[in-house]
Amino acid sequence: MPRAATARTRSERPAKPVKRSETLTERAYRLIEEQIVTLRLRPGDVLSEQMLSANLKIGRTPIREALQRLARERLITVLPRRGIVVSEINVSTQLRLLEARREIERLLARSGAQRARPEQRIRFRAIADGMEAAARSGDDKAFLRLDQAFNLLVLEAAQNDFAAGAMMLMNGLSRRFWYIHYKEAADMPLTARLHAEIARAIADGERDKAGAAVDRLLDYIETFTRATLDAQG
After folding, report:
1. Which end of the chain is more exposed for a tag (fewer CB within 10 A), N or C?
2. Residue ranges, the chain, pLDDT below 50
3. Beta strands of 33-191 (E only): which ranges?
4. What are φ and ψ of residue 161, in 5° steps?
5. pTM score, whole prediction
6. 228 touches 91 (CB < 8 A)
7. Where are the domains of the chain?
8. What pLDDT does residue 91 have?
9. Of residues 163, 74, 68, the one with CA closest to residue 111
10. What is 24-86's CATH number, 3.90.550.10, 1.10.10.10, 1.20.1250.20, 3.20.20.70?
């Protein structure tokens, strides 16, 4: 091939996507959210911007912005004269959340199966494999991190800002509830398999299969949640 044609062919190749760096606000949110979900910060704990800034070595402005997002997601509550408090857990609230989550998550999974880019489909398969490996080894924190990555990837692949905005309000509460109660009433290998079924259906572009997999996961989560409520009397 002539040299000029080779150069032109190379220039026409699509550039590889550049991974965006995490902002300080995103880092602060990720770290605080994980501490709340995994109970390092427990329900009723009182927080302060100063304490979190010192512990995480992140400035107070990103901490404040992260806390505003966590308040919108109901993982923390701002109370007059008490300050910032990690929110309590309510099983009845969790059941109402699941009603909305089922419809929105089904839409997102079906849309993701249709719209995901090739590199996103590869990531879905890797997350599915990682979740099942974490479940086999009993590594709950690794599973939760992969669950967070899965949730964000679904939102990214679905390309629906309205559904994504609603789902973001539910992800943290759902993950914390599971983490608190899974040792009593949940089955981590089954939870991983049900998530992996959704991830692989999206990766394969199977809209109906992805929606059905969401229903199986939410059926299981609802059963698990009701069992928790029954156990509490």
Report:
1. C
2. 1-18
3. 46-47, 76-79, 83-86
4. -65, -35
5. 0.79
6. yes
7. 24-86, 91-231
8. 86
9. 163
10. 1.10.10.10
